[in-house]
């Protein structure tokens, strides 16, 4: 089993940038779903284990000081001098984990709902080396690249253990001096006021030794890393985005994150796929949609032509015939089977939905009365009953292309003008109504 430190953020299902309210909300949700009383009796033992782990993660991440320690040093930040476990508020994490998992987190990989997170949280022994945390970053990819797949090479610079001092920080034969500030523990406990007459105890990394418990004098530091224990290394990496990958998917480069002294192996470099918006296509799962424009003549009589260029550069030709006078209308949809996005790890593809937009002719396209008559002769003329009225007026009109002025200046408050009424003014604006003199 790989030695890997359990990621508390992953356990609660939140990103490392999550706010305190988001962590609290995620804890309540996870605790409710994992509570032993909410599952069948045969699953209660496993649920109890997961429930305790979730509660322990929330105890650490809900406290700002403990969260800072965890973010900067991981669970090693809570270790006391000599490798003993020291949790938040003086709680011995190793004792808690031993009680929860029978002597360590070695069985964590078998917990239901926690696949991929199994590892030696306590390592099965105190001070055991662990795998480093993953480094996650976003990677923007175009829809064309997601359609065809993409392989790219890039230069990565990361920290690796100094080969000269093997991560110790000192010259060969030199031993670090015990830090007198923290007495070799690497952390210091202090009281911090939180209100009138109230204090809280917090454990923070020792600033003198940077949480190591010891330090080297300048003359004894490793000449290669200058006591930092790590050096920078530049490496060319290859990143492959598979065909059909989706927004939010993660591409993992194992072991390519920074190395940290005291850990058996570095963490992974993780890229989260971010899909760039496309000017033509809209994606929904494995399906694509696009709007195409056709003329009024094509809507009435059909057409056969290339309507768009697909994501792989192919032209998509559509042939539409109109049997028995059927016409195409605005927002009708042409469904093209199998021309959507590829489906990962298969030969299948989604579908393509073409949404029709009909362009009407420009003004003046009918040049004379004869042309108008020819159109009238071809198009169907529906006979509609004329509205009957006692008085009929012939009115003049103008053709508009919008309703922007509808209600404006009409005396209606909804049109922006104030409503004025003579009766209202007499009753409310002019005081008491005046009686006429007899």
Topology diagram in text:
Elements: H1 8-12, H2 20-34, H3 44-61, H4 64-73, H5 93-101, E1 135-141, H6 143-148, E2 150-161, E3 177-178, E4 187-195, E5 198-205, E6 214-215, E7 230-241, E8 250-253, E9 269-275, E10 281-284, E11 287-295, H7 296-301, E12 303-309, E13 315-320, E14 333-336, E15 352-359, H8 369-378, H9 422-429
Helix pairs in contact: 2-3
InterPro entries: DnaJ_C, DnaJ_domain, DnaJ_domain_CS, DNJA1/2-like, HSP40/DnaJ_pept-bd, HSP_DnaJ_Cys-rich_dom, HSP_DnaJ_Cys-rich_dom_sf, J_dom_sf
Protein name: DnaJ-domain-containing protein
Domain J: 6-66
Outline:
The protein has 438 residues and is of the alpha+beta class. The chain has helices at 8-12, 20-34, 44-61, 64-73, 93-101, 143-148, 296-301, 369-378, 422-429; strands at residues 135-141, 150-161, 177-178, 187-195, 198-205, 214-215, 230-241, 250-253, 269-275, 281-284, 287-295, 303-309, 315-320, 333-336, 352-359. It is 20% helix and 23% strand.
Secondary structure tally: strands: 15
Contiguous runs where pLDDT drops below 50 for at least 5 residues: 80-87, 89-129
The main β sheet shows up as: 4 strands, mixed
What's the overall average pLDDT, rounded?
Answer: 77
Strand fraction? 15-25%
List the total number of helices: 9
Overall geometry comes to: elongated
* Distance, first to last CA: 110 Å
Q: Compute the CA-based radius of gyration.
A: 36 Å
**Helix-residue proportion:** 10-25%
Order of helices and strands: HHHHHEHEEEEEEEEEEHEEEEHH
Summing up helix and strand content along with how strands pair, one would put the structural category as alpha+beta
Q: What strand order characterises the main sheet?
A: 10-11-15-14
